[in-house]
Design a protein that fits this description.
14-stranded antiparallel β-sheet, 200 residues
């Protein structure tokens, strides 16, 4: 008689235990759906401004190379797309560097920039500083620079200093390679130079 009771208990447990397991699993799934899922992206910062939601990318890098093999890299503190798609990007606190195949370097810095992917150009604005390994340091307000080629040009006046002294010029162009294969900074439109002789 006791054996029949034990058999019936085992039979009931075979039914009850799987049902209880199914109930627990369904409860777990129901609770997981009600919990708020949050994922913090290290490269995105979404803020609400006057024009609604705006998305920014933190510390983006734009890197490429010219046909001649010069390495070109732009790094921004923040950037956000302008308009539809990723054709134009507005960036803040820009740092750029060109490593020339012949060994020299040229760096750019500005407060902001508008980068146009289709044209491969970046318009740097506000506190633009150009420094070359040949000894020039130039300041201006606007600079057009190539993102996929060695090119830079200012539409307006520049102030700077170099091996010969301090100068002011109406325009600066990062000249493409000449017959000798060198890239040069060229200053035009009324250059005024204050010669500073080298001290012994």
């Amino acid at each position: 008689m006791a054996r029949d009771g034990y058999t019936r208990l085992v039979s009931w447990l075979k039914i009850i235990l799987p049902l209880a397991a199914l109930g627990l699993l369904s409860t777990v799934f129901m609770l997981s759906r009600t919990q708020e899922v949050r994922q913090d992206l290290p490269f995105a910062d979404i803020r609400v401004g006057e024009n609604g939601l705006s998305e920014r990318v933190l510390r983006p890098t734009f890197a490429g190379a010219s046909e001649e093999g010069d390495l070109i890299a732009f790094v921004a503190e923040t950037a956000r797309p302008v308009g539809e798609g990723l054709g134009s990007i507005e960036a803040a606190d820009i740092r750029a560097r060109i490593d020339l195949v012949e060994g020299g370097t040229i760096t750019f810095r500005s407060d902001s920039a508008m980068m146009a992917e289709p044209s491969g150009l970046a318009e740097l604005k506000g506190g633009v500083v150009i420094v070359s390994s040949s000894g020039y340091r130039v300041e201006t307000e606007v600079l057009m620079a190539g993102m996929d080629r060695v090119y830079a040009e200012t539409p307006g006046e520049v102030h700077g200093e170099g091996p010969a002294g301090r100068f002011v010029a109406g325009r600066m162009v990062l000249q493409s390679r000449d017959a000798g294969g060198d890239v040069r900074l060229r200053f035009t439109d009324g250059v005024k130079l204050v010669y500073l002789p080298a001290s012994d």
